[in-house]
Structures are given as C-alpha cells and as structure tokens.
Amino acid sequence: MSNNQDNLDTKLSDAKAKAGSLLSKRKTPISDTSVVEVAKTGSAKDAILWLLAVAALIAATLVNQYLPGYWQPANDVWVRIGLIVGLVILALICLALTHQGSAFKILLKDAATELRRVTWPSKQETVTNTWQVIVVIAIVGFIVWILDNLANWFVGLFLG
Fold first, then answer.
1. Disulfide: which of 67, 96, 145, 147 matches 101 by Cβ 3.0-4.6 Å?
2. Longest pairwise C-alpha distance within the chain
3. Closest listed residue to residue 31, CA positions, set 121, 112, 128
C-alpha cells in the first residue's frame, strides 16, 4: 500500500513540477518594470521635453496661418506641410524620450504580448456570429419601427 502511495506521490510531484515550469515559461516575457512606476518618475529633463513638445505642437497649428506673412518660402503649401509634419515628429520624439513615453512603450509591448495569447475565432465562427448580430439588429429595428408607428398613431388620435 505504501509503495503505491509513494508512487502516486512521486507522479503527483512530477506533474506539479512540470505544470509549474510550463506556466512559468513565457515566449516573450512581460516587462518586470511596472508601467505606473515608470510613468510616475519624472525629472527636469522630462519637464523640458514636455514643454518643447507642447511648443512644437502649438507652432505646428500656427504655421499655416502666420508663417507665410513672415517667411516668403512658406507661401508654398508643400513647405508648410513639411514644416507641420516636421514639428509634429519633433513633438513625438520629445514625448518618446520622457519617462511617460518609456511607460507607453512598455505598455505597447505588454499589449502585443497579450494579443499573441488571444484565441481568435475561426472564420466560420466569425461568419456565424456576424449573421446572428445582423438578424438580431433587424428584429430589434422592426420592433422599434412598430412601436414608433403605434406612438404616431396614438399621438394622431389625441391631436386629431
């Protein structure tokens, strides 16, 4: 009896060890640093980069209206478009270099990891669910149409 018990205990411990190792292995690990911890940290560099990004975005909104009056080449629409795109890119680069930008990059990596783990429906399931939704929408639309006609009829009775 004890030999069978020892054998079962051994198999159980082996199964637990194997399950634990399978659960702990990840193909792409989620980052150890918390997004909130990274986003809450700040420095003088972050403040300067935020101000520079806001200034670049404000400048991008004002380029089209005010710059042609002060700078002759800005009368060409493609020069203005290039300046606006350049200022927006400068603002995005500044924001990416802040601690909050780093936290956003971590968040995107974690989201990509989670999306790889999603079990997506098959094509047949998608088509079936789509048709079910279309049928339910048609039924509800018909019911609302009937209620609307009844309400119009009652209002017509009272108003004459």
1. 96
2. 97
3. 112
